[in-house]
Amino acid sequence: MRDKALWSREYAQAKLFVWFVPALHFFTLGFARINDLLFDGSRSPERLEAALRSGDAMQVYQFGNLESVGRGWMLLAAFVLALVQFGTERRNGSQEFLFSLPYSRRRIFCTKWLFGAALIVSTFSLNTAIDMVAVLSSPAAELFSLGYHFTQWLYSVVLLLAAYSFVALVGTITGTVASQTTLSLFLWAAPMSMYIVADESFGIMFGRDLFPDSYLYEELQDFINIPGYIALSYEFITWGKMVVFALVAGALVLLGMRGYERNKPENNGKFLMFGWLELAVQTAIVVLASLLAGNFAAGVVRLGDGRLGFLFGLAIGCAASLLLTAKLKRIRLKS
Q1: Do residues 295 and 196 lie in contact, with contact meaning Cβ atoms separated by under 8 Å?
Q2: Rg (CA), the chain
Q3: Which tens digits make up the pLDDT trace of 34-48?
């Protein structure tokens, strides 16, 4: 195999994940299902009997609650794996050695991503199979739904691949583990946070909501609530969402590959590897921090209708965040 050395290196760097991640997911899905249907269910036959009489398979599958918990833990595992593969590699100095090997950076990045993707797909495949066997071996076997298991498996895979690709992309544009972690969390929370503070700020200044209550309002909330996709109930999973996540994952991989190809080891230790990104990130932080400070001040400074307090907090938040982000850009941590 042409890239055997790269695959061996990825395995040596993250071999604990190969064993830990499937085991973690098993305890949140397969074992939980066994405990529910074979152990708890055998002690509470009336619950299963009620589900069987209703003919509603979703009562047996708990409307996807176990899969949601499993995706949450898998998200954490994928997040840490991407940190190890990209951020930690800079910190321990092994990136320079990796770049000296006779492989293109594109191939190195693809190997890293394929390693993580293979771990995600194989973990969900293995534990979905165990979950299926658990249901078929239980008193609720007659309500077994292959379509349910396939849908949950496919949705979980494309969602986690998109999340993993996102953190990997951030790892190619940041210079430290700390900045990769911080920026990933910030960008994950930014859409919903910006939505909330912008709506509240508009209400304080103009006396009405920026996003009035409507169907579009609810749809917008659901769309930008990134963490909500992890806990999404089965009835809200659609083929459209799965296609979107698959396309997002593909786009993030291409962007990550591009960023990794242009990576300069001499920039290790900087918050961001590319200067042109600093202004965009700084602007987002300053806007969010300023609006947050304005909202806080409007509730504390009780003058008039709250506008004066909001403007006062906005100014303080803007000045403070500008100073802090400017200082952050000058800091160079040890990689």
Answers
A1: no
A2: 24
A3: 888 877 554 456 666
Alpha-helix runs per DSSP H in the chain: 4-28, 30-34, 41-43, 45-54, 57-60, 65-82, 88-91, 94-100, 105-136, 146-173, 177-206, 215-224, 239-261, 275-300, 307-330
Residue 130's identity, in one-letter code, is I
Mean pLDDT to the nearest integer, 111-135: 95
72 Cβ contact partners less than 8 Å away, ≥ 6 residues apart: 230, 231
Count of CA atoms in the C-beta half-sphere (13 A) of 107: 12
> Phi and psi at residue 196, in whole multiples of 5°?
-65, -50
**272, β-bridge pairs:** 174
CA 278 to each of CA 101, 275, 315, 320: distance values in angstroms, whole numbers, following the listed order = 30, 5, 22, 17
- 155 vs 36, 56, 131, 319, CA distance in Å? 23, 22, 16, 43
Specify burial of residue 334 (Cβ count, 10 A radius: 0-12, 13-18, 19+).
exposed
Long-range contacts of 3-6 (CB under 8 A, 24+ apart): 3/103, 3/107, 3/111, 5/101, 6/101, 6/103, 6/107, 6/108, 6/111
Model's pTM, two decimal places?
0.87
pLDDT at 138: 84
Per-residue confidence at 157, pLDDT binned at 50, 70, 90?
A: very high
Please say whether the beta carbons of 200 and 295 come within 8 A.
yes
Other C-beta atoms closer than 10 Å to the C-beta of 153 total 19
Tokens of 136: 């078929």
Q: How many whole angstroms separate alpha carbon 78 and alpha carbon 162?
A: 10
